[in-house]
Amino acid sequence: MDCPALSRQERKMSKKNEVAVTETGTSLARFEDAFAAQAGEGLENVQSKDLVIPRITILQALSPQIQPKKPEYIKGAQAGDICDIGTGEIFEAPLEFLPVHYVKQWLEWAPRSSGKGLIKVHDTDEILDHCQMNAKNQPHTPEGNLIQETAQFYGLNLSAGGRRCFLPLSSTQLKKARRWLTLAMSERAVRGDGTAYNPPLFYRIYNLSTVEESNPNGDWAGWKIERGLKLSEHSDAAILFTEAVAFRDTLKSGKAKSDFAVEGHSSDEM
Questions:
Q1: Mean of the per-residue pLDDT values for the chain?
Q2: Rounded distance between C-alpha atoms, residue 232 and residue 19, angstroms
Q3: Least CB-packed of 58, 168, 173, 261 within 10 Å?
């Protein structure tokens, strides 16, 4: 069936809307050009020590991100979701992660009821000499603070375009960290002269998803870590390689700090 012809008034309104859309597009393009011309303005004095590295975690039943009355609440977030705590973003599994640096630390947390959160980061396990074990076989200081052995993986969140981040694994997830390191240590590459070598940690991208886990203390969501593409197979390999080296250099120099949220020790304390 033929459509009725537009009236003169309707044609005028249609033309007016087309012009408005065109002008809006032109205006936005001009703004983008203006922003590009002022790239970095106002940020000249920002240094690495002024920034924190956002944490990637799995939301659990007690995470404030899933509790509507909490300021950290993220609309639509659920237990088991993969979340960037620093930006409040939720990512669908698998999350693509390129590790660049690993370190083992012992985190000292105040009792949850105190609301004080992280007390201190220990780089050695000497603090354990001053601890006693509680009923759950967890080390606590004389002040009642929990000491949590934590495997820290720093890297690039490729699902977020290569954003710098870190992934802490503790308690039940430490066995995942050991398997991850075993996978990395078992990698072999060949030089031009035919000799084999163990490539750097950022030789390969890993796919991170979640699995349901439980023990007599309860249920929670844990990590599932699987090998992904070799970095050389990624379409942005050269850019990511350069960023990985730069991030590792920043971490080794101590010019970056991790963003530990108050509820950080609740995520896998089973």
A1: 84
A2: 47
A3: 261
Dist. CA 106–CA 128, nearest whole Å: 9
Residue 199 neighbours by CB distance under 10 Å: 16
pTM over 0.70: yes
- The runs of H, that is alpha helices, within the chain are 8-37, 174-185, 237-252
Query: Max alpha carbon distance in the chain (Å)?
Result: 87
pLDDT of residue 73: 92
**Of 69-73, 153-157, 185-189, 205-209, minimum mean pLDDT range:** 69-73
DSSP of 137-179: S-EE-TT--EEEEEEEEEEEEGGGTSEEEEEEEEGGGHHHHHH
Q: What HEC string does 52-98 produce? A: EECEEEECCCCCHHHCCCCCCCCCCCCCCCEEECCCCEEECCCEEEE
Which pair of tokens denotes residue 205? 């991208």
C-alpha distances (whole Å) from 62 to each of 65, 109, 262, 265 are: 9, 16, 12, 11
Phi-psi region of 8 (alpha: psi -120 to 50; beta: other; left: phi over 0): alpha
* Tens-digit pLDDT profile for residues 68-109: 999 999 999 999 999 999 899 999 999 999 999 999 999 999
Specify whether the CB–CB gap between 200 and 184 falls below 8 A.
Answer: no
Contact call for residues 148 and 141 (beta carbons, < 8 A): no
Tens digits of residue pLDDT in 108-122: 999 878 878 888 889
Tell me the per-residue pLDDT of 228-240, one tens digit each, with 9 for 90 and over: 999 999 999 999 9
Cβ contacts of 192 within 8 Å, gap of 6 or more? none
Higher-scoring residue by pLDDT: 21, 250:
250
Both tokens assigned to 226:
């699987």
